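Dissemination and training. As part of the outreach component of the grant, students in the summer workshop were shown how a complex can be specified as a set of sequence lines and then modelled as a single object. The example used during the hands-on session is reproduced here so that future cohorts can follow it. Participants entered these lines:
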Amino acid sequence: MKEDFLLNMGSDGVTDRLKRLSDLFVYQTRDFYRNNGLDIEPNWHMIFRLLQEREKMTVTEIAEAIHHSHPAVIKLINKMKAKGYIDSVQDTEDLRKYYLSLSAKAIQELPKLERYWAALSEALMDLMGNHLRLLEELREVEERFEEMGFNQRAEKILNTNRLPDSPSE
Amino acid sequence: MKEDFLLNMGSDGVTDRLKRLSDLFVYQTRDFYRNNGLDIEPNWHMIFRLLQEREKMTVTEIAEAIHHSHPAVIKLINKMKAKGYIDSVQDTEDLRKYYLSLSAKAIQELPKLERYWAALSEALMDLMGNHLRLLEELREVEERFEEMGFNQRAEKILNTNRLPDSPSE
DNA sequence: ACAATTTACGTAACCAGATACATATATTGA
DNA sequence: TCAATATATGTATCTGGTTACGTAAATTGT
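and obtained this result:
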């Protein structure tokens, strides 16, 4: 068990630990796919699920649904298109819009993919100790974030700390 | 309050939510630094802390301490060097090693930086609801990860699911 | 009806991780 | 002692995210 300096940093280490853990999941999921001969990327799962439910969506709608920037969605979708998993059809009324949906190939492969996703899902629950406390804590922070950003909270604290304190330097 | 599809995905959405939250912290911390005229990046904080405690360390030692790859540390350190925050001295006995330490400029700026880090730290506690439950849940998952990777867990589950089930397709 | 604004998609440039590969120096071992 | 192996740093290329900027189409409003 190697030393982990981020643990010493207490809450100040949380940002990096969140990313570090997320990265571990991503890299190992990619490994898992490759070892099992699946030609998909880890972050495509949410797009599959989304388009399974909604049938067709525009780039902007997807970006809003998953709370990511639209360029992030465009890059993701372009790779899925290149592999033939996504169909794109221009809206006849609003020429700016393109409706994205799962291709025939994607739908055909779904049953196979589902089996691997089920294994990943079980492994995840296993790793979380078969409870959802991490999710719950995450949700709490996400909710507070919506009330007021980290940014503004820090700025506010900086100001209140500054006034009663020394006006020096 | 906009819809968030990742919440619908339950535990399958956790990977992306961890990264999404971490990114929010990073981007808003960068904003905070820029608004206050500080010429540093968010992920430099842990390096400052580490070198404050250990005085001097090699790239490899830093990489091990924070559980990142060594190329990640090299990139990070090179940027800090470019801004004059890091000194590098070659070991006289082992010419492969370079001891990294905080520069005079870095040490001189520390008191100023501490005030901003204190504000960020408070803001973080605020956002976490003044408890450390998120950290505790995170720690649990990190520990289980050390016992067995996500990868192997998924592979194992895949195999046990396969045997008693249909050998079809 | 047409100018001004907003919306949708796309691109460029940046940050931050990882793995794979390369090179130089140390260490090991027959 | 010298060949083989291991270690330390560095580079290239991939992933994934962001903001800033650009262009075309739709909507708003006078």
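Chain A touches chain B through 82 residues (CB under 8 Å). Students were then asked to discuss how this feature might be tested experimentally.
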